[in-house]
Design brief:
The complex is a heterodimer of chains A (456) and B (455). Chain A has 456 residues and is an alpha/beta fold. Chain A contains 16 helices and eleven strands. In chain B, a hairpin with a 2-residue loop joins strand 5 and strand 6. The chains are: A alpha/beta (456), B alpha+beta (455). At the A-B interface, helix 10 of A face loops of B.
């Protein structure tokens, strides 16, 4: 690919590249390399026909949306009518969606062509991309290493140049973690900004759909396509239309960027050096760097795993073996089962006060802490993951796996937005800078990411 | 032996749409699994729509009707109640925390009122599930254990049914729209809950059965343990539910996909302003306002439409006469024709003018009833109906002539009467009725005869 998303859009609009050609190239590339990368687990047989329809509209001068002719990959926990939304699990191996998720409807209306379904950690339960029932995903940017998860397929697909944009989901870091490991751009929007109708649940009070892209403008375009109130959904913020892509280059003059010493306590020093370098760059670009205290940030992890397990237990009750062939507990992998059983255990009447309620209290604490820090700043920047990705197949403990999520979980608990942009490398392995913004602070967050990208 | 009975009544509300999706609720009228969508079948990734406002308002109205205080300005979570059953597409049922508390109805305290949704319908024999019913809004009314006998419980359920139907916000009781769980305990025994009851009759029978069963058990020195039983309608007995079901922990959590309800006072007041008057309150008011007997008022408020008609008629004619007619003649005609007040097509003015004719003695009550019968069949002005029925009102002169004629033609009867044989008067009256072809008022005839024979 090698070209920016905006540039590619322009060539399609000018007729220099047809949507059909764009899809053909993507399919060719996927055909050649997907066996190795395993970023797609199903392709859309109608992609070329859909691209052809876009081309005809473009030729006739009809209005085609912001994503005209771009190729889109969709994480396998998002419903696309006629394709299988397996959640990379044997449980839903044969589940063909009967409807389009709201975000998919919006992507189609925007002229995007969905080319297939991306691999992922089973039911989004994982941080490495290894737990898929369809086999692990490889990291195109760091061969031999995990791509991160759970949106392993979307991040790897972008890193491998399989398509122009992807959508993933982020419950505790599932977009940002693989974006960091694969050296691409990923955004977890503010909770309630993007409709979840059609997203198969992990933790309903935490899940958000967001873009994974080659560059910040691509992420911004996708985000403005899918964001905004869906009247048919309860738990959404009252946001109509938003635009970001045309306001990204306003510079960093006057931008207050927070950094916290608490991040370094949890992070590999080698990674931290890359992050510090990025912070210096941002200072050079005119931002004001402000130190903020986040003393409770490490408590987020255990609270998160209690909350997500209870919600996941509830969400998976429908996979009772009566409707989709297989009972989840009978066919799922061990991490999925671990979360279901944990959720079942701690949601018992006698333990309510002991675990779930306590976890919700910690959630409130984390939220207050981040909100207070974001009162004094516009964004908070820091590392995305505390350590470098391990080698695929390397056995690590459950707690070591969970530890990948230390720095991404707080944004989900607080409901704020968080984006990742590549800041550098350690031994050739990408390291992403995480930029956390306020509730609905997507524009400031994207401006910081854009500025860093432009300065690279 | 002291008996304590409490009830949990689940009643379907008559909204057009389901609780959390746009599917229609007429599940009985359509082929299986046609009123369904990804939401009410719990397809992966589906999310509920915001709660059906009409259902929320209907529940508020019902809560107010049973005298509860609606919990305004506080967070009312919609909870997920988890259990595994084929009729439950998502593996949980959505049920609200109480929306109202502390009511009282006919001496029974109402503990609380909840909003719920119905599951689908599972047919264990065929092994099929019909999700048409899945998501139909329910209101749950929980009483305190204030009833002391199955009879009291039955009476309460009947009045509650009438009350709920009165609001016009629920589905008619027939057809399983109302389901009841009963709690019953005898002195010295544990509390037993009986589920699966879908009629008032069923509740009564289940309670009767339980009292006998528990009493026998206690009498023989056995213990009645706290348990949940199921009522088997076909056999009219209760049986223990499987231990697994009784020990179930529903693992309630607030549904993360729905904002909690917050009912503001303005909204509750708006419902209050629009809501129909509860029958027991209306009964009391009718007694006071129209000075009619309680027994008449009770019959009049038994159906909302009947009470509405009464009040419209009472504005135009003597309310007491109207009350008597409603309780006796109108009710009789309706019962005979198997109609309810809602089926009445004549106007209040038509009925009022008929009652006016009765009052002015233009027609006799007997003739009036004939006219009323005709009016129910085919609404029209009573004057026209009189003509149609050939009931030309009798002129005073005709009546006097008939009386004179009867006296003249039956000297023996006159002699007998004057000799003190009162029955002779009835004979003479019969003759007058014959001469007037039944158009005379028998009371008037007797009066006139007595007067003439005195001379």
């Amino acid at each position: 690919m090698g070209r920016g998303t905006l540039e590619k859009l322009a060539t399609i609009r000018r007729g220099e590249l047809s949507a059909v050609e764009n899809v053909q190239r993507a399919l060719e590339r996927i055909g050649k390399q997907n066996k190795k990368i395993n970023a797609f687990i199903e392709l859309n047989p109608k992609a070329l026909a859909e691209a052809d329809a876009i081309d005809r509209m473009l030729k006739q001068g009809e209005h085609v949306g912001k994503l005209a002719g771009l190729t889109i990959g969709v994480k396998s926990n998002i419903n696309v009518e006629g394709l299988r939304a397996t959640c990379a699990s044997r449980t839903l191996e044969n589940y063909v969606s009967t409807y389009d998720a709201e975000v998919v409807k919006r992507i189609r209306a925007g002229g995007g062509v969905i080319i297939g379904m991306n691999n992922m950690d089973e039911f989004a339960c994982g941080s490495s991309g290894e737990t898929s029932a369809f086999g692990p995903t490889a990291n195109p940017a760091a061969p031999g290493r995990i791509p991160g998860g759970s949106s392993s397929g979307p991040a790897a697909a972008i890193a491998a140049g399989f398509c122009d944009l992807c959508i993933g989901s982020d419950t505790g870091g599932s977009i940002r973690n693989p974006a960091s490991h694969c050296g691409v751009v990923g955004v977890k929007p503010t909770y309630g900004l993007v409709p979840r109708q059609g997203l198969i649940d992990l933790g309903m009070s935490l899940d958000q759909i967001g873009p994974i892209a080659h560059d910040v403008s691509g992420a911004a375009l996708m985000l403005e396509t899918i964001a905004g109130k869906n009247p048919n959904e309860c738990v959404m913020l009252n946001v109509e239309k938003v635009t970001y892509a045309d306001k990204l280059d306003d510079g960093l003059k006057g931008m207050r960027i927070g950094v916290s010493p608490n991040f370094a306590e949890l992070t590999d020093p080698a990674l931290m050096r890359v992050v510090d370098g990025a912070v210096e760059k941002l200072r050079d670009l005119g931002a004001e760097i402000i130190e903020v205290e986040l003393p409770n940030i490490e408590k987020a992890l255990s609270a998160y795993y209690l909350i997500v397990s209870v919600e996941f237990f509830s969400a998976t009750r429908k996979f009772d073996g009566r409707k989709y062939g297989r009972r989840i507990e009978e066919v799922c992998g061990e991490e999925v089962l671990r979360r279901i059983l944990r959720g079942k255990y701690i949601s018992q009447k006698e333990y309510r006060g002991k675990y779930y309620q306590r976890a919700l209290q910690v959630r409130t604490l984390i939220k207050q802490e981040l909100m207070a820090a974001l009162q004094r700043t516009d964004v908070i920047v820091g590392p995305t993951v505390p350590k470098l990705p391990h080698r695929i197949g390397e056995k690590i403990s459950v707690s070591a796996m969970y530890a990948y999520d230390y720095l991404t979980i707080p944004a989900n608990l607080a409901g704020i937005c968080g984006g990742v942009i590549k800041a550098g490398e350690v031994n050739g392995i990408p390291v992403g800078l995480q930029v956390q913004g306020k509730v609905l602070g997507e524009l400031e967050m994207l401006r910081v990411m854009w500025a860093l990208e432009a300065a690279a | 032996m002291k008996v304590k009975i409490g009830l949990e009544v689940h009643q379907q509300m008559a909204t057009e749409r389901k609780m959390y999706c746009d599917c229609p609720t007429n599940y009985q009228d359509v082929p299986p699994n046609t009123n369904v969508c990804p939401i009410c079948t719990g397809m992966p990734g589906s999310k509920p729509l915001p709660p059906n406002e009409r259902a929320v308002e209907a529940a508020i109205e019902i809560a107010l009707m049973v005298g509860c205080k609606v919990l305004t300005c506080q967070t009312i979570y919609i909870q997920r109640k988890h259990y595994d059953y084929p009729d439950l597409p998502s593996g949980y049922q959505r049920t609200s925390l109480p929306i109202a508390k502390n009511g009282k109805l006919y001496g029974v305290r109402i503990r609380e009122v909840h909003l719920e949704e119905d599951p689908g319908q599972y047919d264990p024999t065929a092994g099929t599930v019909d999700y048409n019913r899945s998501g139909v809004p329910l209101v749950e009314i929980v009483t305190e254990p204030d009833m002391k006998s199955p009879e009291e419980a039955r009476k309460f359920l009947r009045t509650l049914t009438r009350l709920l139907e009165y609001t016009g916000k629920v589905r008619p009781e027939a057809g399983g729209a109302m389901r009841t769980d009963v709690n019953i305990s005898l002195e010295g025994g544990g509390r037993v809950e009986v589920k699966n009851i879908n009629s008032v009759k069923g509740a009564y029978r289940a309670l009767k059965y339980e009292i006998i069963r528990q009493r026998e058990r206690l009498r023989r020195g056995g213990a009645v343990v706290r348990e949940t039983r199921a009522y088997l309608e076909s056999q009219m007995v209760t049986v223990p539910m499987r231990a697994k079901e009784t020990e179930e922990d529903y693992r309630y959590i607030p549904d993360p996909d729905i904002f909690p309800l917050i009912l503001d006072k303005v909204r509750v007041d708006a419902v209050k302003a629009k809501m129909v008057e509860a029958p027991h309150l209306r009964e009391a008011r009718l007694v006071k306002q129209y000075r009619i007997p309680k027994a008449s008022a009770n019959v009049i408020v038994s159906e909302r439409e009947l009470a509405d008609l009464y009040e419209a008629v009472a504005r135009e004619v003597d309310p007491k006469l109207a009350a008597t007619w409603f309780r006796t003649k109108l009710k009789k005609v309706l019962n005979y024709m198997k109609l309810s007040a809602a089926d009445i097509k004549f106007t209040p003015t038509q009925l009022a003018s008929l009652l006016g004719m009765v009052k002015r003695k233009r027609v006799t009550p007997e003739q009036g009833e004939l006219v009323l019968r005709e009016m129910v069949k085919e609404p029209a002005d009573p004057e026209k109906l009189l003509l149609r029925l050939g009931l030309i009102p009798l002129k005073k002169s005709e009546l006097l002539a008939a009386v004179a004629g009867a006296i003249k033609e039956n000297p023996n009867a006159v002699k007998d009467y004057r000799a003190g044989r009162k029955e002779a008067l009835n004979f003479l009256a019969g003759k007058v009725m014959k001469l007037t072809r039944g158009r005379a008022d028998p009371r008037e005839v007797s009066k006139l005869l007595r007067l003439k024979l005195k001379k």
